[in-house]
Amino acid sequence: MHRYFLSPEGEKALTRIAVIFAIIASAAYYLQVFGQGGFSGVYGRAKGYLAFSSGYLAEATGLAVPAAILLVFAWRRERWSLWRWVVVLAAISPVLLHAILGARRGPAFLSLGGLAFAWFLFRARRPRIVPVLLTVGVICFVVVFLFVNRPRIYIGSNKALSVTDAFAFLTPSETEAGDDYLVATGAITVSHETGRHGWGRNYLITFLIRPIPKQLWPTKYQDAHRFFFGNSPPSGAENYREILGWEPPAGSASGAFADLYREFALLFVLAAYLYGAFFNLLWRRARIQHGVWLVLFTLAAALSIYVPTQSVSAVFHRFLFAGIPTVILWKAVIPERRVPGSSVRAKRGSLTYASELPR
Predict the structure, then answer these.
(1) Cα–Cα distance between 281 and 276 in angstroms, integer?
(2) What is the pLDDT of residues 125-139, one digit of tens each?
(3) Where are the alpha helices (DSSP H) in the chain?
């Protein structure tokens, strides 16, 4: 296993790739915004959302995150002037704007966390623990602040935002209907009582059927569910009412581990191990080989917000959509040079930083 380093020409090519991603992401974002009546049309209500006829165009907004990460990587040895910060913020602005105006916790952590992880991992010195903890703490508080103030955040709102509600959310005195833990345990209970598990079929639908444009196959989800599940569909709202006496509020999510249990029953333990092994693989490749693996690990770390808040597929479909074009373009246009004798494995827990990398 060899370690590769970017040449100066490679860093320039990396900047061009980042700019291309940023342009695509911005174009996709503003097409959706102005296709729905502009900012007031999208964000004139609580939890404003984007919708477009093409799923690929809707997901293209997410390319803003690898765009910003690639810029930080390309400029990791340079002095950071104001214009560099402006360019990076402009690159990630589609996701960041959606996070702020729509009060979205996922995009908020994805954008802010992606920038923070890239900054600490790519810079020319080892990060100190206190700045890292403070940065992560601030990002997490921003995420919670947006989440609890979601009903108050929209264009035209005259409702006062509350900081105390954010602290109250972290130390709740009672459980609400949409509580993540309550929804997750409810999902596990219903799946256990009904005995209905996906056994990987839901993931096949996500990763094999979902990429097919609906313009080519309008009834793809109905046909796929009929093919994979027949007359035994997964647990639905009626099962929640029958077993628990309640059903999760619209928009609530159970998290990755409840998602794995619904899919694999007690084998979710093995599935969770493989889930963690995926992150471990990226980390090991990042610290040993550097290059594109560092970018992929940073992207995965930013997407980790969806582990407790959504599902396995929420992590992987975003990772694949952003990661695949990143790897393809990196390998196609960026010249890397292999350092002789660099095939030695890195020490356990070690990571070479930019100051230690040869030009």
Answers:
(1) 9
(2) 788 899 999 999 999
(3) 8-35, 38-43, 55-60, 64-74, 82-101, 105-122, 129-148, 164-170, 180-194, 201-204, 220-229, 237-243, 256-264, 268-289, 292-303, 306-309, 312-333
Number of neighbouring beta carbons within 10 Å of residue 38: 13
Domain match, 333 and 229 both? no
The tally of domains found in the chain comes to 2
- pLDDT tens digit sequence for 277-336: 999 999 999 888 888 999 999 999 999 988 888 888 889 989 999 999 999 999 888 766
Same domain, 45 and 121: yes
Q: What's at 224, amino acid-wise?
A: A
Domain hosting residue 56, numbered range = 4-167+271-356
**What is the average per-residue pLDDT within 22-43?**
92
Residues 146 and 41 in one domain: yes
Two structure tokens written together for 92: 């990630």
Mean pLDDT of 53-66: 87
pTM of the model: 0.86
Which of 249, 265, 281 terminates a domain? The answer is 265
Query: Given 265, 290, 306, which residue is the final one in a domain?
Result: 265
Q: What percent of the chain has pLDDT over 70?
A: 89
Q: Are residues 154 and 282 in the same domain?
A: yes
Q: What average pLDDT does the segment 149-154 reach?
A: 90
230 shares its domain with 296: no
Handedness of CA 291, 293, 295, 301 (dihedral sign): negative
Contact by Cβ (8 Å): 338, 1 = no
Contact 345, 3 (CB under 8 A): no
Task: Identify whether residues 12 and 120 lie together within a single domain.
Answer: yes
Based on the fold, state whether residues 68 and 123 are members of the same structural domain.
yes
SS3 338: strand
DSSP 183-245: HHHHHHHHHHHHT---TTHHHHIIIIITTS-TTT-TTHHHHHHHHHHTT-PPP-HHHHHHHTS
Looking at per-residue pLDDT, the higher value among 81 and 354 belongs to: 81
Instruction: Tell whether 145 and 208 lie within a shared domain.
Output: no
